[in-house]
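Lecture notes, unit on protein representations.

Consider one protein chain, 337 amino acids long.
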Amino acid sequence: MDDLARSLLQRLIRRIPRQVLKTTLSKWARLSLQQEESLDFTQPKFVLMEHLLALCAENGLGVKHITELEMIYVIDNPNQRKWNAYQLLEPRDDALSVEMIHFKEQFKVHLVALIRHVSIKIKKHTDEAVWIRLAWGDSLSRPNHLKPSYVVHHLQTPYVFVTNVTSKRMTLLNQALVLATRYSSIKDANLSGRKLTAIRDLLMKQYQQVFPSKHLQPLGEKNQIISNPQVEYEQNEQSESRLQMACEVFGGGALPELQTAIYKLETKLKDNPNKSMTGREQPFRCVVKFASTNILESLRHGAMTGIASTPVTPLLSSITQKGRNHFVITDKGPSSQ
């Protein structure tokens, strides 16, 4: 077991929580049943790590095998890094018929043609997603396995999710993706987040959508008793209307756990008393960031309860309608960046 493989395994074991390490090693299937049973997961982690290193050395495992273990952990725990979404554009006639074998072969061929020193490992997950692990090098250095990139692509869809890729490498990656998927181009979807499942579900509309209806959703029983029947009727009607509009925009049921929405303002300030600011030729620039454990749930609740006005402003409804959480606001209106 060389130094690189040892270093990779040490870093990985430190990252994997003790409660999931046993399951991850079992899925890896590089240790015998007897070797797995010899591991004592109640021991201090450094002791457990040394034992595991000895077992891997005994089995002659190297970098190739350790990266397999890393992929298993990352695939099972995708919501621990920042992901950026990209959208493939202008599919060719055979784009929807691209299969795993064709994609894998073409992606490797085209990326290696662009950059010689790159390590590529591709695995198809049970949900039909293709996971790609990339370790980048350059003309003078070998692939750096300590700082890998990950790419996720669902075949027959135009969406790609990427993490830990520099802008320089992204140019090369985009070229390989476009050629392998049989599309003409690719663009930044202006959607990012730490939960891969959330941005995937938002883009692919994999949540309960509510469509416009003349029949409003009935409200549940109210704790507060209103003595005037007319007041009660009007309040219920308004609440039902807000509920319907909020669900039409943000969805019903459980929503994708998107955590931020960012708006970059590049507009001229309109404030007559403040002549020093309104007289500037350059636009006023600032950033407004909404943050929550579930921003869509928070916005829906605000609209349902009347905290936010209804109908919902396009600045907020564009998050679900356009599948974005990064916007630029100019004097011409909102646009995705």
